[in-house]
Amino acid sequence: PDPSSPLLVYLAVSAEAISSVLVQEKEGTQTPIYFVSRLLQDPETWYQLIEKVALRLVHTSRNLRHYFQSHQVVVHTDCPISKVLGKPELAGKMMAWSVELSQFDITFKPKGPIKAQCLVVFVNELHPHGHFEEQWWTLHVDGSSNCRGSGAGVILEGPKGIVLEQSLRFRFKASNNQAEYEALLARLRLAEDMGASRVKYLTDSKVVAEQVGDNFQVKDHNMMKYYHAYQKLKTNFKEVSDWRAEIRAFLINGTTPTEAKRLRTQASRYVVIAGQLYKRNFSTSLLKCLNSAEADYVTREVHEGICGMHLEARTTVFKLLRAGYYWPTMVTDCAMFVKRCQPC
């Protein structure tokens, strides 16, 4: 290969194997130089997608070390591996991989078009597809506080099986709700670093869920600081999930977006009372509409709370409706919740 031109690396992963191809572009044509592939060992098959992609890059750098040392290397992938390697504290094995790769001149770019026809089938079939930043990311937040201290556990779930986990320990005294806010803010910052533009959050704190949903008034001075910090971070995202916002804005302000006809038909089933959105129902009274965080909280309480009996998904949905709650995806959400419930 020409030492004055960078080398391009395309990564491919599957359930049982990882592969990569090293190419160089000359006069608008990509010429293959080397192909590397190996089967995953049994423990490695349980790796998350982003860990498999990182492992593929590390394995390629080890096998083609002389190429990596003598050339600038451009890795083409849509997977946010560069952002994860920049935060190696998110996973233990990432620390060693990040240090090992830091000795090479590696840059990351989106996959883009493939100019070598012989690579099209290889990359298109096995390459992690999709613009991860434009898809929904889910934040799972759980904070706690006791006499020994306070901390939080946070999980960020991205598309295509990307899962980032982190535990936090605070060196200051904090209440349970403050710990929940700290966890939420930490995860929003991480989602921002990952380039996520659409996020939805799940928390087991009713106070935090209602406050960030603008349903509860924030009176405590310290909580007000957390609330304003959340509102400031929220502006960095295109959308923080709340399916009620569009309908509520239409009913209150009469705004008519591009899909005005669809929204007008949908909004006829809802009513706003004291700023809260309710759904009209034939067999019961008005149903209070919940966002994703509130829905997760009430599902947890109904299914496994003090009066919970760990009922099946269909019965859980029926109990939620009888309790006066509603959100559009409650059937599928309850099914997934029951499926994840260990006692069930």
Architecture overview:
The chain has 344 residues and is α/β, with parallel strands linked by helices. The chain folds into three domains: 7-129, Ubiquitin-like (UB roll) (Roll); 133-240, Ribonuclease H-like superfamily/Ribonuclease H (Nucleotidyltransferase, domain 5); 244-340, Endonuclease III, domain 1, CATH 1.10.340.70. It is 40% helix and 25% strand. The chain is built from 13 helices and 14 strands. The strands form three sheets. Strands 3-2-1-4-5 form a five-stranded mixed beta sheet. A five-stranded mixed beta sheet has the order 8-7-6-9-10. The protein has a four-stranded mixed beta sheet with strand order 11-12-13-14. The relative contact order is 0.08.
Annotation keywords:
alpha/beta; Endonuclease III, domain 1; 3 domains; 344 residues; 25% strand; 40% helix; Ubiquitin-like (UB roll); five-stranded mixed β-sheet; Nucleotidyltransferase, domain 5
What is the CATH architecture descriptor of the largest domain? Roll
User: How would you describe the shape?
Assistant: elongated
Rounded Rg = 24 Å
Give the % helix: 40-55%
**What's the CATH C level of the largest domain?**
Alpha Beta
Mean pLDDT: 76
User: What is the terminal separation in angstroms?
Assistant: 59 Å
Beta percentage is 15-25%
